[in-house]
Amino acid sequence: MSGGDKLEFEIRRNPAPVAVADRAALLASPGFGRVFTDHMVTIRYAEGKGWYDARVEARAPIPMDPASAALHYAQEIFEGLKAYRTVDGGVTLFRPEANAARFVASAERLAMPALPPEVFLDSLHRLIEIDEEWVPSGADGSLYLRPFMFASEVFLGVRPAQEYLYVLIASPVGSYFAGGVQPVKVWVSPDYTRAAPGGTGAAKCGGNYAASLVAQAEAIEHGCDQVVFLDAVERRFVDELGGMNVFFVYDDDTLVTPPLTGTILPGITRESVLTLASEAGLTVAERPVTFADWQADAESGRLREVFACGTAAVITPIGHVRFPDGEFAIGAGEPGRLTMGLRQQLVDIQRGTAADPYGWVRRVL
Length: 365
Ligand SMILES: *Cc1c(COP(=O)(O)O)cnc(C)c1O
What we know:
By secondary structure, the protein is of the alpha+beta class. The protein is 26% helix and 29% strand.
């Protein structure tokens, strides 16, 4: 397939979908990432041939040769976005073009072929169409979409693979915060970093997560919910959490987030928050924040609120910060007014209960 060509999807309906009553039971309390829909999309790539064999088919295990390159050298990237049920029974996506573009950027960093954005978007539409019944209704649920791609070539040599498999699966999810939004406690890792200059920090690749897990486990051991990473060079500047970007709100209504210098994942939620905040008249700045300033400004009261953001939890207030030498609170450790206001604004746009002046919402069904 070349450039702007359209790839036709062959549809093979699952002959044994989950029964209606069983699906209803699963949708009643899906949790996160454990329940999956009846179908998946697969598209193959081979050097010299391009993208081919696009299918919507029954979700099933993927047969894999033990010498598949991804299992050895981790050429793998992914995306994460949600489909929302609208109040009138339709289905929408939030800024899916941004995910399509980031998938291309991640592919380029991992020396993988770019999946054309129109094919990426088509795959989302095809899967949502066939698995529409799996999109939860109600104000909290959504259908989490997980596009990913990995090196499928059977070869142990170290070089970019010549064959890839793109897959899209979907998982209905409930409210991230059962029982209301709770501030989290974060652990500032003294030992581990997430991404170094020149590395893969800006790519959404599984390898970044693999490298972050031991730090996340350390956070849990220290009674925290999430880990915060400092920069890999000076260990002074705040980068981000394991899977969320971070924002600081000061008493002069300034909103600050670390700049995208290559070691931070360019979050779509992050970008949306920057837009909403500047439209609301806040002063927004992308500039480095040191951990020392974080602590000093929290203790002086100049720093009012801190929050993390990403697709899964939208906006999560950070209430406490723990590090090897101590701990401090942000304000009274409660969710901040500005944090919760931005969260509501964003959720309302995503759910279609507020106007969408930025053209972020895409109607699928
Ligand atoms: C996906 C991700 C985010 C959040 O990105 P969104 O597009 O807002 O979901 C932040 N940090 C990391 C490391 C991520 O992988």
